Amino acid sequence: MNLLNNTHSTISLPSFEMNNTSQLLNKRVTEKDSLYYICLIVKKRLEQLPLLKPYLNLAYSTAELLCERQALLLAQRKQQLHQSYDSITLISSSNSSFLQSPGNRISSVSSISMDSMDSEKISTTSSNEGAFVMRSSSHSSSSNLSSNKNDLLTFSIGILPITTDCDPVTQLSNLFQQGSPLCIIFNAVKPQHKLTVVSSDDIKVCKKSIYDFICACKMYLTLTDEELFTISDIFSNSTEKLIKILDVIKTLLDSAPSIFPSSSAITYTASIANSNTDHGKIVREFLETERKYVYDLEILYNFSKQLVDYNIINTEELYMLFPNLHEVIEFQRRFLISLEVNAQVENEMQRIGSIFVHSQNFFKLYEPWSIGQTAAIDYIASLPSFNANASHLIIKNKLELQSFLLKPVQRLCKYPLLLKQLLQTTPIESPNYKEMELAVDISKSVAKNINENQRRTENHEVVKELYGRVNNWKGYHISKFGELLFYDKVKISSGGDISDSDREFEVFLFEKIIVLFSESGHYVGSDGLSGGSSGLGSAGNSLKKTASSSLILKKKLSNTVPTLTNGKKTKLDLRGRIMIININKVTPIGNHNLNITWESPKEQGNFVLKFRNEETRDNWNQCLQDLCKLYRAEFGTADTGSRQNSFIQSFSNININNNRDRKSTRLNSSHTVVSRMPSSA
User: Fold this and answer.
1) Most buried in the list 160, 294, 338, 450, measured by CB within 10 Å?
2) Is-contact 518 662, C-beta < 8 A?
């Protein structure tokens, strides 16, 4: 009889057999779903067999040694991080949050440009926002991740509390690697088919014992290769492999209730130290929501496998739609194990901050999730086979899928709030207070980088769309404007009189220029590219070929491009522009307004941007301040004329007439370097 048939393990990934996804979304996840507690229960059941006691003790000592080695490695890394933080803080005090150092020029912030659109890739460099977690090239990111993986000597992340020697997950993994304990377990279950027990620290002998156990399970328990594990699985550092091993062990234990008590018979109550205090309540919320998050990731992982099994997507599309999902789950299981360990000790002994210090590079796994989320949802929902097989899938429609795909980014943005609350309830004199402060900064940087990735991806699509919306670029090349940083519909008044009645413009802030457009009253064609003069130079042709494609997927994703207006997109007329290098001063006025003072070789003036809310105004203000600071650092010793001539584009004064007649809104040319921009009609 196959012992695994019709047996649902609480260790395995979530079952597909759910009536609807609302049950999954609202399912209450407890400690019984946590790998940490599953291992605790299995360990307690194994302790009932006296023959296993010396092997359990040896596994404990080995796990303890590994935890000590990991703590030493992390202490060294933490010291390096503090030194890096001091250096970054010093640099960020003189450089912008959006930009690289002056010597690297503005264009080094990102290579998201129209010239690179034909390759449909985004390549970003790191932001110098006093951050611990910074984007880098894919090569360096992989290098950093590999470096951190080498520090993972146990199944926990970070440094354990001083009162904790090791975690039960690492202990059980080391127990199984001895080989002979598996034979002892089998002999207890099937005494009529006893295996030879050979205790040794020789790896070859250990592997021979594991091999004997696997063969015996096939022969006497009729388990298949798919149901069993391999020798390499035993020595793997993978939580997924360990879960498979635990499934088999649990099945054997369940078959001998007279020797191994059932899981329900093990009296172990999960408790959180000082759970009635404010700190304890926050730890409880942190832990419970983390358990649910890991469970939801496993649901999503099962769903992704279903899509491949039902031939809805292929393996290449699998990675594009669910990037790094397996690696993310591996990381988050370890993250949860570490939280479980810390929740058991007194507040002053907890090392939750250390978890984030150790995790800083692993959070880079989430970067692909911040790009193309909407595209992934729309792509799957657009596939006919998705709707046809919905009844067989664990996630059944687009709305449910969206809920799960958004969870990773939502969770990352939740960490800063939880850590901030923990920091507020941690005494300043606590030995781990500084570590918690560091964790807060790391979590904020992670969330900021995720948001920045999403913003850049959206802006990349907006620029492609903008190219086709403009009636006449008047000789200007959008590919030379730099990265699009912000865009919005803004009312503008001239001369600083914010009481004037104003016209609304669509304003685009690039790295090198602010460009103003007014709506022409005509609509863009369905392809989004009709009617525009070539403002892209050499990138124009390649843009037209790729504009309907996704940055990630290569088909059926044109409907995910962000729109600038509700409903149909209107065509735009170019009304004015001012080079960032000619801006002298940016001053907030009131709650929503921003006064910009500019100067050219022949004249000077100012205008006021009127935003809808204070937050948007503040974002634009900070960005412009940073841009101006960078240019002053590069060209501060040069006169206005030399600063002007350092750019290939021209500068014009923006003269906004308050008459709402479109013809009265004109642009007075003051000085050009390469080409003169005609006055608008």
Assistant:
1) 338
2) yes
C-alpha closest to that of 331 among 361, 296, 299, 288: 361
* Cβ-Cβ contacts under 8 Å for 507 (sequence gap 6 or more): 487, 488, 489, 490, 492, 514, 515, 516, 517, 609
Contacts of range 136-143, beta carbons closer than 8 Å, 24 or more positions apart? 141/361, 141/364, 141/367
- Residue the block writes with tokens 């959180």: 272
578 lies in some domain: yes
Q: Which residues span the domain enclosing 360? A: 278-456
pLDDT at res. 665:
33
**Judgement on whether residues 430 and 497 belong to the same structural domain of the protein:** no
Exposure b/e, 617-641, CB count within 10 A at least 16 = b: beebbebbbbbbbbbeebbeeeebe
**How is residue 613 written in tokens?**
């809310």
* Same domain? 581 vs 435: no
Closest to 12 measured CA to CA, from 338, 325, 308, 298:
298
Name, in order, each residue with C-beta under 8 angstroms of 525's C-beta and a sequence gap of 6 or more.
468, 531
Confidence (pLDDT) at 9: 45
Residue 450 CA to residue 181 CA, distance in Å, equals 45
Shared domain for 425 and 489, answered yes or no, is no
Mean pLDDT by 10-residue block, N- to C-terminus, for the chain (681 residues)?
Answer: 45 47 77 94 96 98 95 80 58 42 34 34 33 34 53 91 96 98 97 96 97 97 94 96 97 94 79 84 96 95 92 86 92 98 93 94 88 75 76 83 89 96 95 95 93 84 89 88 92 67 87 91 57 40 32 33 53 90 91 89 87 91 92 64 39 38 34 33 31
DSSP result, 72-112: HHHHHHHHHHHHHHHHHHHHHTTS-SS---GGG-GGGGB--
Q: What is the per-residue pLDDT for 336?
A: 98
Does residue 125 come out as left (phi exceeding 0), alpha (psi in the -120 to 50 range) or beta?
A: beta
What total number of domains does the chain contain? 2
CB 171 within 8 A of CB 164: no
Structure tokens at 459: 């802006």
Q: C-alpha distances in angstroms, 247 versus 3, 41, 56, 327, 486?
A: 11, 13, 19, 21, 52
The pLDDT score that the predictor gives to residue 567 is 52
Q: Are residues 424 and 520 in the same domain?
A: no
